[in-house]
Structure prediction request, 358 residues.
Amino acid sequence: MEKFPVETFRVEGRFGIYDAGVQALFERGVKKIPDKYVKSVHDRPCAKNVVLTRRIPVIDMSKIYGDERVKVIQELKCACEDWGIFQVINHDVPERSMQSMMEMAHRFFDLPAEKKMQYYDSDPSSETRYGISYNADKETILDWRDFLLQRCHPLSDELISTWPDMPSSYREIAKNYAMNIRILTLRLLAMLSESLGLYREYLADVLKEHEQKMLINHYPPCPQPDLTLGVSGHTDPNVITVLQQDEVEGLQVLRDGLWIAVHPIRNAFVVNMGDQMQIITNGKYQCAEHRAVVNSTKTRFSIATFYGPSLDAVICPAPKLIDQDHPPHYRQVIYGDYLRAFRAKGPNKKAYLQSVLL
Ligand code: OGA
Ligand code: NI
Prediction:
């Protein structure tokens, strides 16, 4: 029997009474996780399937300006064909901006549950929301995480007014961070276009108005980390994701049936390809299936920026990458439709991508 009845973890939010998430469980000192967080045996993070000794590629973005440009573009191409995930260093996003955003993440989640609950919303289509797991109303088994999601582009005062204003500097720091990440992402998209032999603005052009979302993931320590996951195995539905992680290990990427641990590098970002990148490149660049594990002693934070098409953008394999030897593998999708299908269920391996295979 749980020491605390489930009701004690329920808090009044804008939309009614809801579970206060895993932070509340951790703070109450539960020794046994509730059944709704226990994954099936097959999905649990079995240590014998995890590789700690391999490294995902690292791209040094400062080299793009010098004699080594061609070599860096080639490295990027190999990283995307081979892994679909890599880290970037010397990326020109100011360290100060990264640190202040991480500090804001900590301070937001340090707020009392009642305060955070002002932003609680379980509807996955809501653009700014504090939530638990992914789609807590629909999932039968939940992930061990709480999160704060917000749209960051196109930026307007109206949009910013929907963001949390606690702590008081939150909005200013988040705005600055979002703009910095956008600059980095546009540079990456140009490099990726070049690496595919497409004109430099190709990827930026197919995304129409562009969509940028920031997701702060908060993974409190878990008393039984072997039974659950911070986020289940999935691919990101967007085009490209730029993730800042703290120094606590947790992110893993699936490769040849094994999970490779992504070791944090100070001030680096982890960049992964999403489903739309795999569609646009007709499978040349693979999106990486990844997950996050939790541990029993340390809180872990990550800040993911999902960059992708606007909802009305039509996504299909780039015509320049199609010929007799390379017929199209994916059908055309309207991004908004794709996202709706993804959101209905939440993280689920490569399920959505397979649904648009020809
Ligand atoms: C995600 C994700 C991984 C992490 O939010 O989509 O994959 O390390 N997060 O938090
Ligand atoms: Ni992800």
About this structure: The pocket of N-oxalylglycine (ligand 1) is lined by residues 215, 217, 231, 236, 245, 250-251, 290, 292, 302, 304 (CB under 6 Å). The chain has a mean pLDDT of 91. The radius of gyration is 20 Å. DSSP finds ten helices and 17 strands in the chain.
